[in-house]
Amino acid sequence: FLSSGFQVAPETKAVMKWLRSIPFVLSASLHGGELVVTYPYDYSRHPMEEKMFSPTPDEKVFKMLAKAYADAHPVISDRSELRCGGNFVKRGGIINGAEWYSFTGGMADFNYLHTNCFEVTVEVGCEKFPLEEELFTIWHENRDALLNYMEMVHRGVKGIVSDKFGNPIKNARISVRGIRHDVTTGN
User: By the 8 A CB rule, do 27 and 18 touch?
Assistant: First the structure.
């Protein structure tokens, strides 16, 4: 990511440092311009190939997370193909980011590759820059979906890795058989 040949903005560097210092496990990035939930990888394994499905080793988990958001969103879960975001109806309102369009340097990919944090990108509406009076409606359309997504933090394995004296072990590597992506314990 940092060697991709582009400058990293100071605020982006600060967020990267923050993400590495606190063991976050779940996040979402909110964007405008479409109505869909995307999940990593956002960058295609083959950089010259656009719209190429690029799953992570945790594909099933990411699909579950994205679906938790999409299913709780009143418009994304609407089965009408004639509405904003209707071209994603057959996919359940979710898509692998690189399959939609590939780009490098995204936070969801960074989080997955360099931290313990699983992030999805939520495109909250078809207008890239909604008017102020539209924000209240957008908030209400996304509130329950955000809460449902946040509750997903309680899914999966969790606990404390400790030594024989009960002291927590910092930076212990945790592996799951069959998934080639380890996580580490926090402080």
Answer: no
